[in-house]
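Team,

Forwarding the record for the chain on the shared tracking sheet. I've put the sequence and predicted structure together so nobody has to dig through attachments.
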Amino acid sequence: MLDSDLGVVSINTALTEITGYGKEIIGKKLGTYLEKQQGKKDGAVIHFSDIRNSVFTSGSFEGELYVTDAHGGLMPIDLRVASVIHDDDESTHFVATFTNIKFRKEAESKLRQLANFDGLTGLPNRTQVLERLGKEVDLSRKNNSSMAVMFLDLDNFKNVNDGLGHSIGDELLLQVAGRLKNAIRKSDTVARFGGDEFIIGLFELNSTKNIVKVAENVLKKFRKPFHLNNIDLVVTTSIGIAIYPNDGNDVETLLRHADTAMYDAKSSGRNNFKFFTESMNLKVIDRASLEARLRRALLNEEFVLFFQPKFCLKSKKISGFEALIRWRDPEFGIVMPDEFIPLAEESGLIIDIGKIVLFSAIKQLREWHDKGFDQIHVAVNISALQFKDKGLVPLVVQGLKKYQLDAHFLELEITESTLMADMAHTQKTLNELRSLGVKLSLDDFGTGYSSLSYLKLFPINSLKIDRSFVKEMASDQRDASLVKSIIGLAHNLDVAVTGEGVESVEQLKLLRKLGAEEIQGFLLSKPLDEVAAREILGRNQSISQILAKDRNESKLGS
């Protein structure tokens, strides 16, 4: 209870229990405990004088502020002061009540932390950085100054999570956050945008030299290995940069352009930074257009198969085909796979495209078998994304069952890097495929991990020596020795060998001499459409006959 001059008249026991004060405060002004403390009301700072003015003017006061307890500590309270009116409408005294809102304040603080800061790294999160960038854009516009947005993405972060576990991945992100904070000025900001993506905002810039300096400093911070659970790991980052106002007048545009530049940095070899340019924007537009055309191609069944013959060096006859996809675009004609497969992988469309290739190849092989070519096999390339897909094995089972084909006539070609991405998944998937009777081939051997020791870990039937080694083997003794070693060691592990990209008689002879089982390449046949593949099967020519025919045609042409 307070008198008409806001002096303490009486207190209850609750006040003593909460603050530690007793009867010693009776007779003292309320302001003794509030005058030096600040609180807020409707966002404005309040003082004791504000309380006096409010109660003497309107008869009441409400607000949140701090009191000093008997131990000298600060306590947040919700204070309410109301006047007691006498019968003659005169105010005789006041009643002051307060609530300790410490726990509410702590809860509000935690909610603000959760709403605005990343729970793992403690950095500002997406919400907070978008708000900050928005304010800085407005300030730059007002001051006619520049600012920059950096979009960072860790290179191959997924390999860390998949190979070492998510706890190690989280520790890496935590250490990355620390290094990024140490790489920027105090006036700038760094935030975790999501996953392994980070944003750096650089404000009040004088020149692009400042931006380059920060970008180089960030890359420098990443050169030192990260120490993760007794493992020293070198992780790099790719950085895209967009500048206000040249590259955008709003936060959304700046972020989109910085993201575009970051992807260009990744495609340029990673571990570098790129400034946004309009040509990058055109690439994005082209990519979006190509993806739309790919989706249309799936709906309109525009994908077709070509078949490159594989020849057995023992029988000297065609032993099978490798199925190769082509896109018969109604506007641009035949589109080769290297022009659309990378995008199909990135967009996930490769799963649907891969199903078309698998089923079309099995269907075609079934037709050849029905026409009497019942010893021919077909090889189908499996992409990294397809191989990771849990639906691959059921899809193979479905295709074989649908066209009533014996599994051992189907060969799946998988690259080394695909096999090594997730060892546990690789072992399980390969064993399931082998149990079906499907043949497994290691494609482009020598371009990935290039270790024959891996062959004993996986149930591989054959490997294909990459064309880059075959191309020079007839003229380069080192390549010839390498091919010889690969074939010898593969045979010791009971793995057959196919030489791909054979374009000369010398290459053919050397592969036959070294013991390769099969060859394929333009020397004997380019990839053929369905009709031409059926014709070459019908001719049943040997390698010698094909070469003799080509020599005669060459003489006639000359």
